[in-house]
Amino acid sequence: MFRLLFLYVLLFGAVTTVDGSNKSTASYEMRQQGSFYTSVTNLLQKYVKDGQVKYKALQQDVPRLEQLAKQIAAYDLSKASGAEKKAFYINAYNVLVLRQVMEHYPLKSVIDVPGFFDKQKYKVAGEYLTLNELEKKKLLLPYKDARIHFALVCAAKSCPPLLDEAYTPELVEKQLEAQTRLALNNSTFMKVQPKQVQVSEIFKWYEADFLAEAPGILAYINKYRNKPIPKQNKVGYYTYNWALNESVE
After folding, report:
1. Closest C-alpha to 105, from 144, 47, 27, 186
2. Which of 73, 90, 128, 197 is deepest in the core (most CB within 10 A)?
3. Angle between helices 82-104 and 62-74 (to 10 degrees)
4. Contact 242/111 with Cβ under 8 angstroms?
5. Tens of pLDDT along 46-65?
6. How far is CA 42 from CA 47, 86, 173, in A?
7. Pair 210, 217: CB distance under 8 Å
8. What confidence tens digit (pLDDT) does each residue in 201-221 have?
9. Cβ partners under 8 Å of residue 24, min gap 6
């Protein structure tokens, strides 16, 4: 009788432990997600205006950036879906750009900082990566989604506008679609003239990404334009403005 009772308690205890562990893990993952994406949104809504950044004001909130960097470093992607990884890495890139700008602020341009994109490494979900590695190895190569170019913001005036909220696993596809449409219908980003259109050098640097999704650059752009650009228009590239994407406060 005692042996049967002992086995029952052992079995019951094991089931409870396994069940409790699973619930605990799921609960942790939910808390991790909620905390990170909420924190990113809170930061961006406070300091992003019309796609530009209020860096002077952000100087007073550097500890919040540091806390986000810690969350980025420790984020657990071991059980993450493709959508979660996509959203996380986009947010990580944008937040780490802001953090590095603030390390050197006041700053006229990120290209004045040696190794801004290809030398400085940050811990991202347990891996040490440069911004270029984060962009290419974690986003462009695995997802092959050219819309990502309109979500990653490198702190330059010629970058696409910065979204004032976090990309989330649930909404990342809709957010990418909206951000791409926003950029490609923006008269500052797209300089449309009667017989030609001047576009960002992003389309030159990453031409292969866009041509993988459309027969030509103009064809890709027109997929997202409210008013398509005539096919006969010539496509040119305006010089990329690397001045800091600072909001006039």
Report:
1. 47
2. 90
3. 140
4. yes
5. 999 999 999 999 999 999 99
6. 9, 20, 21
7. yes
8. 999 999 999 999 999 999 999
9. none
Rounded to two decimals, the pTM is 0.88
Question: Which stretches of the chain score pLDDT less than 50?
Answer: 1-21
One-letter amino acid for residue 201 of the chain: E
Pairing of strands 122-124, 52-53: unpaired
> Checking DSSP bridges between strand 191-192 and strand 196-199, what pairing results, if any?
antiparallel
CA atoms within 13 A on the CB side of 243: 6
Q: What pLDDT is recorded for position 232?
A: 94
For the chain, give the secondary structure using H, E and C: CHHHHHHHHHHHHHHHHHHHHHHHHHHHHHHHHHHHHHHHHHHHHHHEECCEECHHHHHHHHHHHHHHHHHHHHCCCCCCCHHHHHHHHHHHHHHHHHHHHHHHCCCCEHHHCCCCCCCCCEEECCEEECHHHHHHHHHHHHHCCHHHHHCCCCCECCCCCCCCCCCCCCCHHHHHHHHHHHHHCCCCCCEECCCEEEECCHHHHCHHHHHCCCCCHHHHHHCCCCCCCCCCCEEEECCCCCEECECCC
First to last CA, the chain: 79
Q: Tokens 């800091």 belong to which residue?
A: 244
| Residues 83 and 37 sit within 8 Å (Cβ to Cβ) | no
Hey, what are 142's tokens?
């695995």
Which residues, including other chains, have CB under 8 Å from residue 243's CB and lie 6 or more apart? 108, 109, 156, 157
Q: Which amino acid is at 65?
A: L
Which residue reads 């905390």 in tokens?
Answer: 35
Contact of 180 with 127, CB cutoff 8 Å: no
